[in-house]
Structure prediction request, 420 residues.
Amino acid sequence: MSGKLAEVKDKTNAVKVKYLYDAMGNRALKWTPIKGQLYMRDVLRPSFSMGTGNELVSLENTGTNTILKEANIFGSERIGAFKPQTETEGVFTLANRTFDLKDHPGNIRATVSDEKEKSGSGFLPKVQNASEYHPFGMETDKSFAISGKENRFGYNGKENDKTIGVQDYGFRLYKPELARFLSQDPLRKDYQMLSVYAFAANSPIKYIDGLEPGLPYNSPYEAALNFISNYGKFSIQENRDYSASIVEYKNEEGSYSYSYTIPNTGRIAIVERKLPSKKEGIGVAGIHGHGSDGPKYDGNALSYPDVSGAQDHEVPEIVNFTNGQVVIYFPPQNNGIQVSELNPGWATVMPEQGPCDPNDPEAINPLDGVIPKGQSSEARQKDIERFKKENKKVRVEHAKEYEKIIKSRNSKKNESKDEP
Prediction:
């Protein structure tokens, strides 16, 4: 598979580590002369009910037998791990379960176990490791870990491959000390304005690599998650809706990719979806984020405009509720039957969690709220105005990058038409 690391040799030409990959480019096996590590993942399918290629369990083979080394614990994303081989059937053993504490870009800042430690008149969770990072991901000297309790994951929540000192980002390996990837960007044709080895467009505080604006995605589902991570947050911070269309377009080699249009903004509960132009692609879904929770508007329900917009355009509508739930509404098929109470369409909740308003009584995880909790109305209004100014700068940059990508994509199409 192009751009993938197959093996590493030492100066004597002896193989120190080998890698094998599945058909989607995910790491399937890591082999060293001492042991092998196998990965089992959920299935990746290009639809709104797909898996995401997440690692579910890690198996270890020492040459004589294969054991279940680690099983990841998931909520809306990976939140920790369980090591079942140290647990006796029917007996609950402490310290076999660990939980990750992350910051907003997804960097793992600390890992705690299910053990507790006495602290004064109360108890605290037992910290196994803690990390602080430089902007491009190299750990500072303030990081620490109890021997044997290091976390396999770290910066941006990616796996640390300590055998060769890199992080596994799926398509490529990243070297935090260099702030560069070790192979060229497989999407370099769409990002000709950037170095093919650059990480997060050289803006690691603003972007996570793979979450830059306008990036081509393998499915509408992935494009939706990107919109939610960026603009679902803005909706809650600014207490107004952001809306866009998810688009499908055909690549040079005949495959299809997905992205979303530059979002529109509007008042709370009222925003007109921006429909894609012909050069952007075909609209396959609408998406928007509800503003923060309040007495005049239920941010955790599909509104009439949400439903009617999907029915008018005959595509699903994806909504980030203020409580963090992400819901997809599927309108009835256009089969000549009038939309009614007997034929209303249907909705489903995505397994992933979006940004939430911690002041919402129904918030799924108020600790992950994107605005302060318990502000006065005056302080909240000042924050809204501040967020609007700060987020506008990001939106303008996103729009510029998006226009460059659209221009590059269409210029390549015209070049291919002109070829004899």
